[in-house]
Amino acid sequence: MVKNLFSVENKVVCISGSSRGLGKALAKGFAERGAKVLISSWDSEELANTKQEFNNQGLSTESVVLDVQNQADCKRFVETALEIHGKLDVMICNAGTDIIKPAEQYEENEWDKILDINLRGYYFCAQFAAQQMLKVGNGSIIMTSSIAGSTGIPGLAPYAASKGGINQLVRTMGVEWAQRGVRVNAVAPGYIENIMANVEFDENDPYQKRVITFTPMGRRGAVDAFLGAYLFLASEASSYMTGEILYVDGGYHAA
Fold it and tell me: 3-state SS string over 107-124?
C-alpha cells in the first residue's frame, strides 16, 4: 500500500510552458513537494530568470529551451530528462497561446500558430514522453485543456478547436495505453487570474465581463488554485484514472 497517495517526491516531471503563469506555478508547487522538475519555454531570457528565481527560493530545477512547434525540441525535452535523471515519470503539456477575435477575422498564420502550439505541440511532447514511459510500463501524462474545449465561448474559435482536440487526444491515448501502464488525463481550467501572452486585458471588455457573469464563483481562479488537480493526476491517488478531463473552473462547466 502506498503510504502517501498524493506524494510526488522524487518524481521526474517535465512541464512545457513553465516560465510564467500557470506553468510556473505548477513547477514551483511540484518542486516544493520534492519532485525533480524540468521547466521550459521558447523565451530563453524569461526561462533563465524563472530558474534563477526558483534557485533564490531554494528550489532546484533544470531548464530546457523548448519551442513546442518544433518536433525536435519536444524530443530533446524528454531526452534531457533521461540524461539528467535517468527516467521520466510525469509529462505536463501546458504551453499555450491564444488570440481573441471574431471567428471570421482570423488570418491563416494566426490559426496555424494556435493549433501548432496548443495541439500539435501537446501531441509531440506526449508522444515522446510515452515512448519512454511505455518501456517501463509506468507514467502519467497531463494536458492543460480548457472549458473552451467543451463549451462555446465567443472569440476563441481556433483556441477552442485546439482544446477540443486535446480532449480527444487524452481520451484516445488514455484508452490506447491503459493496459500498458501509461495514464493520460487533462485538467480543464476555467478563467485564471494570469492572462496569457498575446491576450490584452481590459476589465471593461465584454469578454472579460463574461468571465464574472458565467462563472458561478464570480471570480477568476488564482494560479495556485489549480495545482492540486495536477498533483492528484501525477500521483498514485489517481492510479485508476485515465482518459479523463478534470474541470477546475469555479463551477463554469456545471452551470
Answer: CHHHHHHHHHHHHHHHHH
What single DSSP character describes residue 103? G
SS3 breakdown of the chain: % helix, strand, coil, rounded to 5?
50, 15, 35
pLDDT in tens, the chain (255 residues): 567 999 999 999 999 999 999 999 999 999 999 999 999 999 999 999 999 999 999 999 999 999 999 999 999 999 999 999 999 999 999 999 999 999 999 999 999 999 999 999 999 999 999 999 999 999 999 999 999 999 999 999 999 999 999 999 999 999 999 999 999 999 999 988 865 554 455 566 666 777 778 888 888 899 899 999 999 999 999 999 999 999 998 898 887
What are the structural domains, with CATH classification, of the chain? 12-248 (3.40.50.720)
Residue numbers annotated as active site:
159
pTM metric for this prediction: 0.93
Phi and psi at 101, nearest 5°, equal: -165, 165
Could you give the strand order of the β-sheet that contains 36-41, starting from the edge strand earlier in sequence? Answer: 61-65, 36-41, 12-15, 90-93, 139-144, 182-189, 245-248
Please check whether residue 182 is in contact with residue 141, taking contact to mean a CB–CB distance below 8 angstroms.
yes
Contacts 24+ apart (CB under 8 A), 68-72: 68/16, 68/17, 68/42, 68/95, 68/116, 68/117, 68/120, 68/121, 68/122, 68/124, 68/125, 69/113, 69/116, 69/117, 69/120, 69/121, 71/124
Residue 90's identity, in one-letter code, is V
